[in-house]
Structures are given as C-alpha cells and as structure tokens.
Amino acid sequence: MKAIWFERFGAAAEVLETGDWPTPEPGPGEVLVALRTTGINPSDVKKRAGAFPDLLNQGPVIPHSDGAGIITAVGSGVPASRIGERVFVYQAQYERLHGTAAQWVAIDSTRAPSLPDGTSFEVGACLGIPVLTAHRCVFADGQVKDQWILVTGGAGRVGHYAIQWAHHAGARVIATASNEADAASCRSAGAHDVVNHREAGWGLQVLEHTGGAKIDRAIDVEFGANLPELLNCLGIGATIASYSSTVVPQPTLPFRTMMFMDLTVRMVIVYAMPEDAKTQAVADTQALLVKDGLQHRIAETLPFENMAIAHELIEKGSVRGCVVVTI
C-alpha cells in the first residue's frame, strides 16, 4: 500500500516520506479499513516535530489519528457483516505506530464506528479528536440544559463543535472570537453572543451579554492565558474544562481565589477519556449526523502528495477548520 511516514523529527517537507508499505492484516477484534481520507490535527504535527521524544523508539511512524473509509476485511471476533461498512476512524495513532496517513489501517473495531451514508468521507476525517474532545468538555460534569456555557476560541476545531453540543443540549452559549468572521461562525453554530478575547477585560464583557448572570461552565482552549479573565465571569461552583494551554504551558493558579469560588478544573484529552464517555460521544455524534444536525468547517482538502503542505497549514495556525487529505 501507499503510505506516508517519518523516522526522524523535523520539518514536514524534510522528514515526511512517501512510498510502499506492507498492507496490514486485521488481528482479533480488528477491522481493516480502506481509507478515503485522513484528518490532520495539531497533535499530529507536534508529534512529527518532536514533542514526544520517545515516539520513534519502536520504529517509523505513519501519522494521524483520524480518518474515514470502508471496511474491507475483519479479524476474528468481528462480524463479517461489517465488511463494506462506511466508517470513521479515531485514535489510530495513539500507543500505535501506524495511523491513517495510508491506504489501509487495521484497527480495533470499536475505533471504527459507522459513518452514516449521508456524511462524506471528508467530514468523517474531522470527527475524531475535535468532536469527541468537545463532547467530553461539554458533558463530563453532567447535563447543561439552561446553564450559561462559555466557549473560548469558539471558531476553532474543538470550540466549533463545543458550541453545537451545548446548544443542542439546551444551554445558553457565549463564545469568544478575535474577528467578525469567526464571530459569525460562532453565532451560526449556536452561540447567543460573542465577545472578543483580544480585548482587555473580556471576562467582564461576558457578563454584559448574560445580563449579569455568572457562567456555569467554561470550555477553554488556552487555560493559562485565559484563567484571569475566566475568574471574572465564572460563578460559584463553576467548572472549567480545558483541553489546551499552549501560550502559558505551566500556569500559576491563584489557589485562594479559586478555592473560595469552589471551582472545578477538568483537563481533557481524548485519549484518556473513559471508554463509556467515548461510546456515548460516538453514539451522540452518529445520531446528529443522521439528522444532518452538525455543522462542519473544512478549511482545506488536499491530495495525498501534498501531505507536507497540509502539515504546514496546521502549523501556521491560520486555517479555521479541519485540514483533510484525500487518499
């Protein structure tokens, strides 16, 4: 099969290699998926750049966690009826060397859920990390109906889906965005109002949009940088669910202030989600896909030979939405 891999860390154009690779065989409990698309997430380019120094200890890595395609074979213990099923793939390159940047991937059957017929393979490649992370952030601490939910970075990959999950669940959503185009995207996804997180004092601006009501739950993209403003708008007993802190990777916590607010801080990463949380997130995603109830932002769709360019687009941080490569 054709595959893309790296066996050293560095710039995409320098270390990504393309060539022939042995086609995998599905083992017990696994399915073999003929991939049509692969989705690229920030974690994928960070791995390739060397964020996980031990990653290459066991050999070359075929990158990417997310993708979509058709099951062509099954291992023992998997019903043969799954052959021919359209699926999306998630968590393909977690604790494994071989992800979705290839023509085929053999993976645990539970990591290849059904993709509804009306959902494109391009959309399927966007569903893994962003959608499951957003679902966990919104629902990990109970239902959100009638609560005030704040989604920082609402135009980002996770934020865009978090707004939709909260909106569909009956929450009142405030989002942050840095420009009018992103603000419009947030409103289209279901945000009631949007504040600009580039402006000083945006946390207090949030309260202007809620009529003074404090936020019950924040879904946050930059925990260390945003914490001071979050403390200006969160209510007593509120929860912060954060999935990133890139700008301030080692935040300093104002413990006394947070303690007297009875705050809960939840760190979210899709790989560490409990299995029942993943199962519920997948089921809820499939249900909304059947109804065409989710909006998707695909920033770029590129051919397989342009994989390095796709990685570079993610690294620049200027794209809004998923970057998908067709196979």
Task: Please render the helix and strand layout as text.
Blueprint: E1 2-5, H1 12-15, E2 17-20, E3 30-40, H2 42-49, E4 66-74, E5 86-89, E6 104-108, H3 121-124, H4 129-139, E7 148-151, H5 157-168, E8 172-177, H6 180-189, E9 193-196, H7 202-209, E10 215-220, H8 223-230, E11 234-242, H9 255-260, E12 264-267, H10 275-290, E13 298-303, H11 307-316, E14 322-326
Parallel strand pairs: 7-8, 7-10, 8-9, 10-11, 11-12, 13-14
Antiparallel strand pairs: 1-2, 3-4, 3-6, 3-14, 4-5
Helix pairs in contact: 2-11, 4-5, 4-10
Describe the overall structure.
The structure is a single chain. With 327 residues, this protein is of the alpha/beta class. The protein folds into two domains: 2-126 and 296-326, Quinone Oxidoreductase, Chain A, domain 1 (Alpha-Beta Complex), CATH 3.90.180.10; 131-271, Rossmann fold. Helix content is 30%, strand content 25%. The protein contains eleven helices and 14 strands. The protein has helices spanning 12-15, 42-49, 121-124, 129-139, 157-168, 180-189, 202-209, 223-230, 255-260, 275-290, 307-316; strands at 2-5, 17-20, 30-40, 66-74, 86-89, 104-108, 148-151, 172-177, 193-196, 215-220, 234-242, 264-267, 298-303, 322-326. The strands form three sheets. Strands 3, 4, 5, 6, 13 and 14 form a six-stranded mixed beta sheet that branches. Helix 6 (180-189) links the parallel strand 8 (172-177) and strand 9. The longest helix is centred in the last third of the chain and has 16 residues, at 275-290. The protein is globular, with a radius of gyration of 20 Å. The model has no long low-confidence stretch (mean pLDDT 97).
